[in-house]
Design goal:
The protein has 455 residues and is α/β, with parallel strands linked by helices. The chain folds into 2 domains: 214 residues, Periplasmic binding protein-like II (D-Maltodextrin-Binding Protein, domain 2, 3-Layer(aba) Sandwich), CATH 3.40.190; 197 residues, 3-Layer(aba) Sandwich (D-Maltodextrin-Binding Protein, domain 2), CATH 3.40.190.10. Helix content is 42%, strand content 12%. It is built from 22 helices and 11 strands. Strands 5, 6, 7, 8, 9 and 11 form a 6-stranded mixed beta sheet that branches. It has a 5-stranded mixed beta sheet with strand order 2-1-3-10-4. The N terminus is likely disordered. This is Extracellular solute-binding protein. InterPro entries: Bact_solute-bd_prot1, SBP.
């Protein structure tokens, strides 16, 4: 899921941190993936070697938003550390403006000025580099290093994998998709956040009878619709259903869980769960958040940035009446109820042609330190480190931060947003099919058949 990249699905703002800043950081965790790399890639910008300890300064590309101050502080600490001295290397952080990041990285990775370390979104965003053998497989390195192995929540570390192998180290905050609800509306109508699909449908009926739309949905952007399918497929068939597709088997769209999820979506749409005009409502321009905050819709399935979006636009609602809960179970489903979907985090990856691999790996360990986690919390993020729970009392909203962290900490699996896992080209085509399903232009079976043909 992404923001202002110019793709047909439209932008999607993060809304900033929990502290109420409203800069567009949603893009950071969901930017479009790079296209196929040019062939014949050779040297890394910091040297022409193929690994080892070459010494000197190595370059790290980072997405240049307001949150980059956390990474800059980490670079400053590392460059003064014993690890920098021991490896004979220092880090130079190169900030790339948001809208330029993906194209500049793609161009650089095909040139002699490629970065040694670079920020990315995991999954499909790095697949072209992995296929071209341009990034380091970190699996064995992590397994044999206690700091890296024990430093991060396993579900987040695995979420950005390719083929079950690690190619990145988590380096920013988590953003799971959460079922938000209006506490005032729920209290007035004596409702509880649904823990099962039947309870969700029962709530829907009571809300519609009271003239309230059950769910806000920015359907004109399409990506908010994707969240429904992600959770439904996971609850019905488990994380392995989409994992099969992510690993390249497009026939996985034919899994019974996929068809059942599409059928449940159609039932919700036909039943008016999203109202009658959701395809013309946008999240990006504030339409869906406003419908929710003003009590015209009782619930909103959205990424964790919804908190800061509401805090910025409707602060009284955010502070008093915004509630949050996990996605409910689906009767007969086999998916683990602890599973979450969304954008786990961002990652650092290492160029396989770096001349100082030891320095690069040592720098990545900085992301597992308590000071790094403290800096993330101070910036309004919820870290993905295994020790972060001890720090969340200092978050701008400790209750919400703790809910997010415990939700992800307990997760058996954290599925990366499908569009990010598949990459830009396939993700865009998938959005088109999802839009047709929600708009009633395709039946559930037509949706499944069309997705099986994506390539």
């Amino acid at each position: 899921m992404e923001s202002t990249t110019g793709r047909s699905n439209g932008g999607r703002p993060d809304g900033g941190s929990q502290g109420g800043r409203t800069f567009s950081r949603r893009w950071v965790l969901g930017a479009g993936a790079t296209t196929l790399l040019t062939t014949g890639l050779t040297a890394c910008g910091s040297g022409n070697g193929s690994g080892g300890s070459g010494g000197g300064t190595i370059t790290a590309f980072v997405y240049g938003d307001d949150a980059v101050k956390v990474q800059q502080a980490a670079v400053d600490r590392f460059n003064k550390s014993a690890a920098a001295k021991d490896t004979g290397g220092k880090i130079k952080l190169e900030r790339i403006p948001g809208s330029d990041y993906s194209p500049k990285l793609r161009t650089a990775m095909g040139s002699p000025s490629a970065p040694d370390v670079f920020f990315n979104w995991g999954g499909g965003s790095i697949k072209p580099y992995q296929e071209a053998d341009k990034i380091v497989d970190l699996t064995d390195i992590i397994e044999n290093d206690k700091v890296l192995k024990d430093g991060f929540l396993p579900s987040v570390l695995a979420a950005g994998d390719l083929g079950g192998r690690h190619y990145g180290i988590p380096m920013r905050g988590m953003q799971p998709v959460i079922l938000f609800y209006n506490k005032a509306v729920f209290a007035e109508h004596k409702l509880q956040p649904p823990t099962s699909w039947d309870q969700l449908l029962d709530n829907n009926a009571k809300l519609k009878k009271a003239g309230i739309t059950p769910f806000a949905l920015g359907g004109s952007d399409i990506w908010p619709e994707l969240m429904w399918l992600e959770y439904l497929v996971d609850r019905i068939g488990g994380e392995q259903v989409f994992r099969r597709i992510q690993d390249g088997d497009m026939q996985g769209w034919g899994d019974p869980a996929m068809l059942k999820a599409a059928e449940l979506v159609k039932e919700l749409v036909d039943d008016g769960a999203f109202g009658s005009k959701f395809t013309s409502v946008s999240y990006v321009n504030g339409g869906a958040p406003a419908v929710f905050a003003k009590g015209k819709a009782a619930m909103h399935l959205m990424g964790s940035w919804e908190y800061s979006t509401q805090l910025g636009k409707f602060p009284d609602f955010a502070k008093k009446d915004l509630g949050w809960a996990p996605f409910p179970s689906v009767e007969g489903g086999t998916g683990d109820l602890s599973n979450v979907v969304g954008n786990p985090t961002n990652y650092w990856s290492i160029n396989s042609r770096t001349r100082n691999r030891d320095a690069a790996i040592a720098f990545l360990k900085e992301c597992a330190t308590q000071q790094y986690a403290k800096d993330l919390v101070a910036n309004g993020d919820v870290p993905t480190t295994s020790n972060a729970a001890l720090l969340l009392n200092n978050a701008p909203n400790p209750e919400f931060a703790t809910f997010q962290y415990e939700m992800v900490e307990k997760a058996t699996a954290f599925t990366l947003s499908w569009d990010q896992a598949l990459g830009d080209e396939l993700g865009t085509k998938m959005h088109t099919e999802i839009g047709k399903l929600f708009a009633g232009k395709h039946s559930p079976q037509q949706f499944v058949d069309a997705c099986k043909g994506l390539k």
